[in-house]
Specification:
Layout (H helix, E strand, L loop, with lengths): L1 H37 L1
């Protein structure tokens, strides 16, 4: 049962990290887009 719990924790961490990465990518895209709008 403990092994399964650890497996689930790792999966959760990976999912959270993936979501964070996507958010950063999205933010970077918006940030890169801004200067072209302001020029």
């Amino acid at each position: 049962a403990i092994e399964k719990k650890i497996e689930n924790s790792i999966t959760t961490v990976i999912k959270q990290r993936h979501i964070k990465t996507r958010d950063i990518d999205c933010y970077t895209t918006q940030y890169n887009y801004l200067p072209s709008v302001l020029q």
